[in-house]
Amino acid sequence: MVSITLDGVTKEYGSLTAVDDLSLTIEDGEFVSLVGPSGCGKTTTLRMVAGLETVTNGQIRFGDRTVTSAPVQQRGVALLFQDIALYPHMTVEENIAYPLKLAGVNGSDRHERVVETASLLQVEDQLEKYPGDLSGGQQQRVALGRSIIREPSLFLFDEPMSDLDAKLKHELRPLFAEITDQVGCPTLYVTHDQEEAMTMSDRIAVMNDGQLAQIDTPDEVYRRPDTQFVGEFVGRPAMEFFDVRIENGANGPELLAGENLTLAHNGLNGYDGDDLRVGIRPQHLRVTERHSGGIPATHVFDETLGDRTHSLFETPVGRVTVETPPDFRGGQTDYSIEIDVEKLSLYDPSSGVRIG
Amino acid sequence: MATDTAGDPPPHDSVSSPRWHRMLPESVWGWLSITPVLLLYTIVALCPITFAVVASFHDVHLLNPEWTFVGLSNYAEVFQIDRFWGSMWRGVLFMIGSTLVQFVVGVWMALVIDSLSRTSRLVSTLVFTSYLVPTIVVTVVFEFMLDPYDGVVHAAGSSLGLWNNFLLGNTDLAMAAVVVISSWKFAAFVSLFTLAQLRSIPDRFYEAAQVCGATRWEQFRDITFPRIRGALAVVVFLRAIFMFNKYDVIWQLTEGGPGSATTTMPILAFKETFQMNAYGRGNAIAVIMFLVLFAGGVLYLRAMNPSQEVHT
């Protein structure tokens, strides 16, 4: 098994650039998620890797082998679709065995390997049935079986769980992780669900508008988003952003917003006189009684989540979400919000790129 | 449920269920709503069929309004006609031949159109207009193209040494010519049917198969064919029935000739009725055609079971 390399891959549809100069390496055995909003080019990227879409520019390599224009059949990839794509006219057994049948494996060996794969996926008692008789989760297990039965060189997932309900997702997530681990080949997992990407991946590649915005471990992407876009896309609730000016006050640098609103004191040495955009996770904001120090805020409503509360406040710098304790109930009254300056990410206000 | 609503209507529901509607039980409304169809079916189908069956038991001379009941003797006579079994054989030959040609050409056209582009409708529209061309236009154009003096198809065929004189006057080749000409129009029917089924196959199925390593032929064998098999079974069934009953094309081209080279069952029935003036006997032939088709149809559907072919 080998690593997968995308080198300056570009895909254009007429004048539209769907994927723009994307470079990315997936190491052997590594699980990389490609996340991004709808239309960001993540599925196009996956389809180019699979060979279902032609590449306009750039190279795709499996190890040393350049596969940029190789047909799908010669790439030896496993691909799981969002809409599952099991053959309704074949039984579960025939579906799982299909790649083996094409490879010319004889009947009894085929059956043996199907039973082996099916028991790994806990569908061994469904072999006689047709896909239409199975639940969505079972169908996706069968599709997984079909894709792993012929030891793939690369595992591709195209939003395989977006049609399934939350309970099934939680059931399938560890199964996908376990199976890809066991197969041991590089995995590229496309999803628009940042939570899925966070929980399953070794590394996350965030795409925006055809370009790679950031690729790093889930932890790094969450803690140090490279751009404002990544900060907003990864993590729930989304990162809050404020445009500020840094000025030296009586007790050191102060973060000023608008005319004369001080967001925080005692922060950000070395940015005197700069205009910045600062980002902070709602988890790092604190709600206190109304006092002169913090951002004046009026409570709007609470989203009760059981283990925590997401509270929305109206402030002079716009609506701000704060993560509050489980028993917090705002009651539409006045508060102050304090920023933990240590946890701020700093961005260039015009480009949205991280500067500190 | 139905009787509940009728017996105990909600007091202020006059808009969705007016008073006059509530005065009759629902079953009466049901019968009333299908009455037009029943009436139409009775007038258009049941009456003429009954009339034909009754006529087949009578001796009816076209110029004599008196019907004489003769029991089964019309049927006995039919089997005595020297051309009956020949016509039956030619009818079956015509049915199988033309259905086969339409099937092969039609399915092939559908596959080509489907692979061209799923968005381009122009080619498919052009193909399907052939189905809209009136039969008389088709036959007249073919007669013209086969004309021994200035027909283009005649020129091509005779220069290749396939035939010498008027093709439709050739006892050995007339049937083949009629089969091909009658298929020209109806291949589009097969295409239309097949294409609708082809378009219902998701692209994902082919992509998944390619990922599994399937070649084009394997994709056809394992996905396309199983998915369109049920529709093909139905279209063959329909075409075979239509072609066995086909009268207009053959009559316009050859009137069943030369000799009786293209006399199929419907041509024979027509000739018996209007040329031999034996209306009863003509109807007996029609009834026999119906029984043959009925038996064939039941056997075919038993064997193919098209409704069982489609798993969704």
Commentary on this structure:
- The complex is a heterodimer of chains A (356) and B (312).
- Chain A is an alpha+beta fold and 356 residues long.
- Chain A has 2 domains: 4-233, 3-Layer(aba) Sandwich (Rossmann fold), CATH 3.40.50; 240-347, Nucleic acid-binding proteins (OB fold (Dihydrolipoamide Acetyltransferase, E2P)), CATH 2.40.50.140.
- Chain A is built from 8 helices and 20 strands.
- In chain A, the strands form 4 sheets. Chain A has a 6-stranded mixed β-sheet, sandwiched between helices.
- In chain A, strand 1 (4-13) and strand 2 form a beta hairpin.
- Chain B is an all-alpha fold.
- Chain B has 2 domains: 2-55, no CATH class; 76-308, MetI-like fold (Orthogonal Bundle), CATH 1.10.3720.
- Chain B has 14 helices and 2 strands.
- In chain B, strands 1-2 form a two-stranded antiparallel sheet.
- In chain B, a hairpin with a 6-residue loop joins strand 1 (58-60) and strand 2 (67-69).
- In chain B, helix 5 runs parallel beside helix 9 (174-199) and helix 9 crosses helix 11.
- Mean pLDDT of chain B is 83; it is low at 1-10.
- Chain A binds chain B through residues 50-52, 71-73, 76-79, 81, 83, 85, 87-90, 98-99, 102-103, 130, 132, 146-147, 150, and chain B through 202, 204-205, 207-215, 218, 222-223, 226-227, 310-312.
